[in-house]
Task: inverse folding
């Protein structure tokens, strides 16, 4: 799975959310900071969508951080963690 597809479907990225909302994948941006054969370090940013109890959008919060993605021999992402 390539980097963008992985980030759009992984659960680990939600650790960057601050309000327990959900990630708006349409706002997801990725900037590769360092790439090696076995890993990629990337800066990510996206908007977290905050919902009201009635199911309406209450707001959006910008979120950002760095992630480290582990790659297999073919360059596919096989896992990710968020360095602290």
Result:
């Amino acid at each position: 799975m390539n980097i963008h597809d992985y980030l759009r479907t992984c659960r680990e990225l939600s650790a960057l959310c601050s309000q327990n909302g959900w990630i708006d994948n349409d706002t997801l941006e990725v900037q590769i900071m360092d790439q090696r054969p076995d890993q990629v370090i990337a800066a990510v940013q996206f908007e977290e969508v905050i919902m009201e109890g009635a199911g309406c959008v209450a707001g959006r919060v910008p979120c950002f951080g760095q992630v480290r993605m582990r790659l297999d021999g073919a360059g596919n992402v096989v896992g990710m963690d968020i360095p602290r």
The mean pLDDT is 93.
